[in-house]
Amino acid sequence: MAIKDITLGQYFPGNTAIHRLDPRTKLLFTVLYMIALFLANGVVSYAVLVAVLALCVAISKISPSVLLRSMRAVLIIILITGILNLFYTPAGPGETPLVAFWIFRIYPAGVRAAAFMILRIALLISCTFLLTYTTSPILITDALESLLGPLKKIKVPVHELAMMMSIALRFIPTLVEETDKIMSAQKARGANFDTGNLLQRAKALVPLLVPLFISAFRRADELAVAMECRCYHGGEGRTKLRQLRFARSDYLVLLLGLVLCVGIFLLGRMGV
Amino acid sequence: METPIIKTEELRFSYTGAEGGTPLVLDGVDLEIAPGSFVAVLGHNGSGKSTLAKHLNAILLPAGGKVYVAGMDTAEEEKLLDIRRTVGMVFQNPDNQIVANVVEEDVAFAPENLGVPSEGIRKRVDEALKAVGMSEYATHAPHLLSGGQKQRVAIAGVIAMRPKCIVMDEPTAMLDPVGRQEVMETVKSLNRWYGMTVVLITHHMDEAAQAGRVVVMSQGKIILDGPPKAVFSRVDELEAVGLAAPDTVELCRQLNREGGLSLPLDCLDVETCAQALYSLLAQRQRA
Predict the structure, then answer these.
(1) Could you give the 3-state DSSP secondary structure of residue B19?
(2) What's the confidence (pLDDT) of residue A6?
């Protein structure tokens, strides 16, 4: 079982203009792009959005096939949404069904809605993947902590959440390695993980999960002591080795994001 | 004598809580550690040596008696951060001490907690990585390093706090021989070139033999304390508490017993042992 193949927002290191942007800029731009996606409702608006994404992909030097492959995981969701839209969209004014059999009717409006919905989800997923492909997880965590900073005033534990996230990221490889070890150890004792029906397989996971959990708790305990030994006392008065700084290009990108949002909104009002 | 960096007085502790609790893990430990010294604390499993270590930077507080770090009583809560930045601690498993997923980020963790400004952190990180010889791995991911390298990163993470003293609780126990060697070299160089006080908790004789002073613990008490040569020549007492003397000492002792020789019992490494044997043979030849 290739447990090492698990990827969670895989990062492709690089040194392109997109890689170099402040992670907060990328995060905010992604959010603006998503808003624009939900405002779009015409061929022109979608064309603009596709062009913007294509441009970003081109600049980031991420190969488009990688992006398409990442789409596979959500293919089913995309298809189901598309099909539902196809059949359930009511007729536009004065439209006759393109196809009619039994209780199903497909109208031109349905085809349009389905195509847009599929495109919308595909773009939504591509833009988030592009964010994680070009930004290291630590930087995303830093950006979140910085952007959510104002929420501290209403007692949201922003620092703690960011710390939890970065520790989780840090321990993924360690725990994956450990899972592999425990699996081998249990296989050596005759455990069988690969055959049987679903229930049997689920049961087979118990001897894997119990030691894994026990060891994770022990690790957590030791880590907490080690962190205390290094004077960890929460986020108060904490400084950072790496400071996030907005450059001129960051302001430019954010401005472009806003323009995109407003532009798509206006296009949407015109219905194109 | 200078004021000791660490001083314990009548230290007693039991994991069950209150002072008369049973069993006592530490039973009246009096220990003074001079600044700049390299002290090894040796003991069998369950001798209380790790528990002692955890008292030295206020992870555990004494049930009875006192612990002073650079004159500060560890029981005083408001001094906690000062105590912890004076005495750093390195543990057995490097994996469970590394917080970040980039080496330099991890080394920066302690100075970040102390509120050091950014440029200051950069400087400390670079110095600390240089001191443990890991500068070239600054931007690597820790999980891809070897055990010895990870443990050196953990040590760097502690010395980035610029502590006066570093306590290591069996730092080599989970490492292969190469990793052990790396870590021991790092520890010795910290003590020799950076003047850092080192307290090394171990059950390896050969590691303890490299220290300037060896403290042997058994059942929560200090039973032997002195320079390595003096401690390791008391083979019978060591054996009584389940510790074997270094092989070279053991060889000399066996030869003395079986062959009626009078070899010295303070040969801690192969070289001095060979020398002792050689001079004995030379003496015989002359006679």
Answers:
(1) coil
(2) 44
Average pLDDT, chain B: 89
Q: Where are the domains of chain B?
A: 6-242, 246-287
B240-274: burial string, b at 16+ Cβ within 10 Å, e else: ebebebbebbbbbbebeeeeeeebebbbbeeeebe
Q: What's the token pair of residue A87?
A: 């059949």
Is the pLDDT score of A96 beyond 80?
no
Half-sphere exposure of B9 (CA within 13 A, CB side): 10
Predicted local distance difference test score (pLDDT) of residue A220: 93
Distance CA A18, CA A256 (A): 14
At A118-149, the pLDDT tens digits run 999 999 988 988 898 888 888 888 898 889 88
Residues 6+ apart with CB under 8 A from B148: B175, B176, B178, B179, B180, B181, B182, B183
This model of the complex carries an ipTM of 0.86
Distance from CA of B49 to the nearest CA of A (A): 17
Query: How far is the C-alpha of A270 from the C-alpha of A272, rounded, in Å?
Result: 6
Q: How many angstroms separate the CA of residue B124 from the nearest CA in chain A? A: 10
Q: Are B202 and B208 in contact (CB under 8 A)?
A: yes
Residue with tokens 């080496």: B103
Q: How many CB pairs under 8 A join A and B?
A: 93
Cβ-nearest to B125 among A169, A170, A241:
A241
Please state, in angstroms and as integers, the Cα–Cα distance from residue B14 to each residue in A96, B51, B109, B222, following that order: 85, 9, 32, 16
Residue A123 CB coordination number (10 Å):
20
Judge whether A4 is closer than 8 Å to chain B, CB to CB.
Answer: no
> Quick check: A189 contacting B, CB < 8 Å?
no
A135 touches chain B (CB under 8 A): no
Q: For residue A231, give the nearest of B110, B122, B154 by CB distance.
A: B110
Sheet bearing B221-226, strands edge to edge: B87-90, B165-169, B197-202, B38-43, B213-218, B221-226
Please enumerate in sequence order all residues whose Cβ is within 8 A of that of B244, keeping only pairs 6 or more positions apart, or say none: B205, B238, B250
Interface residue of A215, A241, A245 to substitute, partner B, most B CBs within 10 Å: A241
CATH 3.10.450.50 assigned to domain B6-242? The reply is no
Q: Which amino acid is at B75?
A: A
Residue B136 CB contacts under 8 Å (≥ 6 apart), including other chains: none
B91·A222 Cβ contact <8 A: yes
Q: How far away is chain B from the Cα of A216, in angstroms, using its nearest Cα?
A: 10
Q: Quick check: B23 and B45 in contact, CB under 8 A?
A: no
Q: How far is CA B57 from CA A206, A207, A229, B60, in A?
A: 39, 38, 8, 8
| Mean local confidence (pLDDT), B26-34 | 91
Could B113 and A170 be called an inter-chain contact, meaning their C-beta atoms sit closer than 8 Å?
Answer: no
